[in-house]
Structure formats: C-alpha cells, structure tokens
C-alpha cells in the first residue's frame, strides 16, 4: 500500500512513473518468489503500466477502465466513464475509448470527492450519503447513459450507494472480476475466483508510511472473511 504517495489521482504522470518504477525495484531487491504483480490503481496503470513492464521479468496486470465490456453491453450506445482527473484525461484512457467503444458515445467524468468519500468509508465504515448523492448530482450524467464505468478502484467500495444516488437506470461496470480471472490464468492456479484464501497461506501487507491501527487495518482487508 503506497499510502505515503496518495492520492495517485492528483499526481503528475512522470512522478507516478518514477514511483512505480521505484516500488518494482524495491520488490525485486527485497521480496523473493513473486510470480505476479497487480497494479491495483487505474491512475497508476494508465500512466505507468507500459513503463513498469520494462523493468521486470515478472508479469504485471494493470487495472484499466472497463470501457470495452460497457460498450458491448450498452443498449442505448451511450456510456460514461467515472474516474479521477488523471485517469479520465490521459492518453492511455483516450486510446482505450478510441479502440474499444466504436459506435458508442462516451462521457468522461471525474471526481476526487468520490475518492475522499470512499476512502473515509473504507477506514471508518462511515458513509456520508448526502455528500455522495450531491457529488453524483453534480456530475449531471445524461439520462440516456445506461452503463457507468467505475474507473477508480475506490469506487466499487461504494458502488451500491452510488447506484442508489442515480436518478436513472444505469448498470455499473468495473473490472475486478476480470482482473482476478486474469491473475488466476497467469498463475496457472487451481484457485477459483471468489473462494477463500487457504488458511495455511501467508499474507503479507506492506505500507510506505505508518498506518494507524495496523491490526485493525488487517482485519478490514482480511482475505478469509465470509
């Protein structure tokens, strides 16, 4: 967890590239037996995925906005991407839209307020529903949009509440399951996506800055929870 550098969505591209390169270098020097790296951030992936792959032989999966499945499933052929400013405005994302949304109109929306709301909910289990709905209203999503791509890994944490704030029928689209399936495929693992991590497995958490209440944090992200 690179909590010393958050939020990535407000950082310049070259700084993010340098940061990701440094984290990969640290991993290669300090951690052995790593079979796969997942960059679990849309901004970091769209800015630095290609650069990161130049600096390691280990396969890297990036998390990028799921505009392709959204476009394929849209009935109105009008979709929206909701992400951080850095993700929604960069060249990698624009290329994804150009390559995979032919025949669709695409709205690009961004919000740092939703990141703040989701982050607070994650750490404190408290959701400011009034602020959330106000931010969704501010985005002014066109009524004909029927697919909303959650282009930030924070947003699925509050997906149910985002949907409750929407004033129209919109299906939310995110890439989590596809990323998990891709990881299992690359690892050649017999683990089934959605199953618990075996109790004998060792899970290590690393942070780049002190975390208040580390034991509580681990309980929040306990991979063996029902």
TrEMBL record:
Its EC number is 5.1.1.3. The keyword Cell wall biogenesis/degradation applies. It is an enzyme of class 5 (isomerase). The keyword Cell wall biogenesis/degradation applies. One of its GO terms (biological process) is peptidoglycan biosynthetic process. PROSITE patterns: ASP_GLU_RACEMASE_1, ASP_GLU_RACEMASE_2. Keywords: Cell shape, Cell wall biogenesis/degradation, Isomerase, Peptidoglycan synthesis. It catalyses: L-glutamate = D-glutamate. It comes from the Bacteria. One of its GO terms (molecular function) is glutamate racemase activity. InterPro entries: Asp/Glu/hydantoin_racemase (IPR015942), Asp/Glu_race (IPR001920), Asp/Glu_racemase_AS_1 (IPR018187), Asp/Glu_racemase_AS_2 (IPR033134), Glu_race (IPR004391). This is Glutamate racemase. It comes from Pseudoalteromonas piscicida. The lineage of its organism: Bacteria, Pseudomonadati, Pseudomonadota, Gammaproteobacteria, Alteromonadales.
